[in-house]
Amino acid sequence: MKQLTGGSILVVDDEATVRDVLARALEQEGHRCQTAASVEEALEKIEVEGYQVVLADILMPGRTGIDLLAEVRERFPDTKVLMVTAVSDMDTAVRALRMGASDYLTKPFNLEEVCISVKRALEQRRLELIEREYKEHLEKKVQEQTAALRETFFGAITSLAQALDAKDRYTYGHSERVTEIAVILGEEMGLAEGDLEDLRVAGLVHDIGKMGISEEVLNKKGRLTDEEFEQVRKHPALGEQILRPVIQSERVLSFVRHHHERFDGRGYPDGLAGEEIPFGARLLAVADAYDAMTSDRLYRMAMSADEARQQLRENRGGQFDPEIVDVFLAVQEKLHACRLKTGTEG
Questions:
Q1: Label partner for 281 (CA 20 to 30 A): which of 3, 10, 55, 340?
Q2: DSSP category for residue 303
Q3: Whole-angstrom Cα distance, residue 94 to residue 90?
Q4: pLDDT at position 182, please?
Q5: For residue 82, what is the DSSP state?
Q6: Contact (Cβ atoms closer than 8 angstroms) between residue 208 and residue 259
Q7: Cα–Cα distance between 345 and 291 in angstroms, integer?
Q8: Alpha carbon 131 to chain centroid distance?
Q9: Is the pTM of this model over 0.90?
Q10: Longest alpha-carbon distance in the chain
């Protein structure tokens, strides 16, 4: 007898002679063989031993080999099944192949063909496991690389926001605070994690278009002239242009472009109204306005939180989405904690 270095095989047949002949032939080829006389016995043994290949007769009293095939394919998908049938029952053999059997053998046996078929099934199983392991490894690498890219991307976005803050010291930390407020509102309103991530990205860079506005205008202490205000009004559209080469998400770009639209349609740059305005942009509009009102500026001191909330109430349905204002006013405790964390309590 050859050294047992082959696969683990279960032979299932209600005839003891057939089981013994097949088992001896396979053991001589180096396989580890056990036998079962029924589908129930076979399933019990597979549950315990986990065979690589099951060789099963189709026609058995009670539950058939087809029943066994169906259960093995569902419960033990890594186990290959070879079906044994009479020459006169080829239709059933073809059905078994369609159900996932690896091959079929006909009685009377050619033992050499049996051994070849078992060897082929073992090789097929080995290749499938290698392919699965490779795919899992590849998926893991892709996930790791995606996470690294996301981290790098957020780092770059944060750097852009910090570069803007450095240009205007009176708005230092504004983008981060707006992002935190907007995300809190988004969570309260049931946004999915993917939507919240888009909101985070847009919040961090919503004002990046101000990079294209002169420092004299950004840092002017007095009232802006009409011409200067027109420069400032360009920053949402300019921000979209700056970000388009590096951000592929049209939704994020739309949040940036439209965060100064008004619910009544009198905002900019496109004069959108109501639900025409992307929802994320409406969230950012409320968060942006509240943080601006409760922060010091060159041309005015910060409002108190109560004063800023009153402004939101008065502009509910005009400048701001009324539903978002209502949620904002209902989550003051969380927003208060956010302002304390960033050191900018109004």
A1: 340
A2: P
A3: 6
A4: 95
A5: E
A6: no
A7: 10
A8: 23
A9: no
A10: 103
